[in-house]
Design a protein that fits this description.
By secondary structure, this protein is mainly alpha-helical. The protein has two helices and no strands.
Length: 69
């Protein structure tokens, strides 16, 4: 008697598992990526409308000058 107590033939493998995985995971990933990009655009527009946007750009410009030296 073998270790297979249920007498199930497991030699056929799982065919099509990557197709199912791709059909489920890839759309979820694309939707999550779109949501993150939309949130980034909303935050960018809020920051751009705020007066601190110019200060932030100026700060990054100063940091880039300091890093060069």
């Amino acid at each position: 008697m073998t270790g297979n107590k249920l007498n199930v033939d497991l030699s056929y493998g799982l065919k099509g598992s990557y197709t199912v995985e791709g059909a489920i995971i890839i759309p979820i990933f694309i939707v999550m990526l779109a949501i993150a990009m939309k949130m980034g655009l909303v935050l960018y527009n809020e920051m751009k409308a705020d007066s601190s946007y110019e200060l932030l750009i100026c700060g990054w410009w100063m940091i880039s000058i300091i890093i060069r030296f």
